[in-house]
# Entry
Amino acid sequence: MELRAYIVRRLLLLIPVLVGVILIIFALLQFFSPVQRAALYVRSPQQFRNLDQIIEKYHLNEPVYVQFFYWISEVLKGNLGWSKSVNMPVSDALLRFLPATLELLIFTVPLTIFIGIKLGITSAIHRDKPVDHVTRGLAIAGYSLPAFWLGLMLLMIFYGFFTGLFPPGRLGLDAEMVVSSASFQNYTYIHTIDGILNLRLDVVLDALRHLVLPVTTLTIINLAFIMRIMRSSMLETLNKDYIMMARAKGLDEKTVINKHARRNALIPAVTVSGYLVASLMAGAVLTETVFNYKGLGWWSVNAAVQLDVPAVLGFVLFIGTVIVITNLIVDLLYAKIDPRIRLG
Amino acid sequence: MAKKSDTLVQIRDLVVRFYTYEGIVKALSGINLEIQREETLGIVGETGCGKSVTAFSIIALPPPPGRIERGEVLLNTNGSTIDILKLPRERLQDIRGHKISMILQEPSAALNPLFTIGDQIAEVLIRHRSETFIKMALEELERDIEAAEKSGSSFRAWVYRTYAGIYRSLLKNRRSLKARAASRIPFLRRYRRKLDAVLRKEVVGLLREMRIANPEGVFDLYPHELSGGMQQRAVIAMALACRPKLLIADEPTTSLDVTVQAQILDLIRDLKEEFGSSVLYITHNLGVVAEICDRVAVMYAGQICEVAEVKELFKRPLHPYTRALFEAIPRPGRGFVSIKGTVPNLVNPPPGCRFHPRCPRATKICSQEAPKMVKAGRDHLVACYHYR
Ligand SMILES: Nc1ncnc2c1ncn2[C@@H]1O[C@H](COP(=O)(O)OP(=O)(O)OP(=O)(O)O)[C@@H](O)[C@H]1O
Ligand SMILES: [Mg+2]
# Structure
């Protein structure tokens, strides 16, 4: 149908955008000297001793287009260079830190979006009533709390005061042992999922226990973002003629809100949710640091501080791709919701 | 003169206010108006005089932050009289879109962009006349069951019987748990198809009555795929789906171009005859009034200043404001005449007669006490001290 045609069109459009991202990153690379750039092609620490050989092999002294050819064929093979800050190839580092970030995201995003949308709608329906004031007040408070402070407070209460209730890190010692034992299959390195797949409830529960505080922190901090957009777009929608018309048709308020208003009001919230996903994919640096939850955020900041150029570039390439794909998904959701986009 | 029993809707002393940051907007200050059965009553007046607020208040839906402070809207149906403004919410919702329905100025804004035309019209039918259509669906299912049994397909007969069971539970209770559960279960959810088909037939018929070409195709289109005129026809179909006693039309042709305007006017006039509805036609165009209305009420700054039969009003406008309105109609060979002065601010409306600051005949009394509606002829009411 039309939606399928739209998806195909959008997927084709993805190609030039990704090429653009790659070209920009490559252009940035040209600011470095050949010797610095050589680090991008290194695969093991020994190779650092003969960088000249690498410069030769990848034609780093030759014209830009030749270099681009060799560079892009390495990138396509998945070779993004050596990350000295964590002592492993960049591609390995990405794969290693991504699951932690994904695990946070899997819980934070649905919670934030669901609660944010609910609160936004409630707030809009009860505009300027006490419910609205309270909801907005709490949301703004959450929004303005610094992540590290909120995280530390939560740790003090739920780790310090209620001793060890919700600990920092990703897993406790026992679960760590299970996970690294030979009999445990790490399919995704997302512990909750692997735990379920291995039928190890203890691992799942332990992972969840460690997730509670960082997910709570991230949800509280990002909630206002979605809630405010949802509230304002809901208010705007409720003022539309077709809402009046729906009421004039004799529909009850529940149908008016849930059928006619909510879907229209969701459109801006979808955009913001896309941003939320993309920014969480880049890692929640402060939250990850406070809870010693080593994900992409922790790795990328660490790499930047140590001038680990290949790591930073690999990270940028990854995030660029993620953002492009998130945008695509947001556009597809728009098209799903709004026939004017799908058919226009 | 109309007999008492011929009155369909009677608005009595209706007061609507908007509580805004700028102050209290006294949008309607004591409106009295009667709408007779099967008549077309026009309301004319400058922008902001309260025409739309009156319209929405009749179905107890003043646009927020408006509040109905006082008054009655009496509806006479089936030999009894009810005050719409005092009805509990659910009874009120039963009346909206069923006994009284509405069409608005901007058809493109009145239709929800995310649902098809067919969906939006069927929604009214299922809201108010679900019983009729469920029964129709059931009848068709009975026929299907018989046919299936004859052809020896006992499985299909069983499926149809299951569907029929769901419809029967819906007949007993509109929010039947069984039906709601079935709507969520794959395959079982297909029971809806029969009802959808029945509704579709009805809606397509309605669209055809609205003189829409290719009604089958239009059923599945989204509002943005139709022209303004077609959209307004769809809105009219939605409003007339349940054959309402009263159709409120709030400037339904203002946003359309002239030829389409004429078509829509014709359509409303013909359908009104056919369905036997009354129409409350709101406009600021006296030409349209002359064309479509039987009687007309002239509004100024939240009050009604003159009510008369159309011919009478055109022959003998009595209120100075009505006269000014006629003067203001552009005519060839004469410069543009506007009513001098400005429309009063409804936060602090002028005391006495609201029109007195702009009135050529105003005297002292006009600024002191509001004039009462007086009978100035057969079926002719006017609120002015100096109309003679
Ligand atoms: N949502 C609102 N908030 C505040 N005041 C309002 C609101 N809606 C209407 N009003 C006020 O009520 C008065 C009557 O408005 P209404 O919309 O009924 O005018 P109208 O006669 O329909 O004008 P138009 O010809 O422009 O449609 C206006 O003076 C306006 O200021
Ligand atoms: Mg209006």
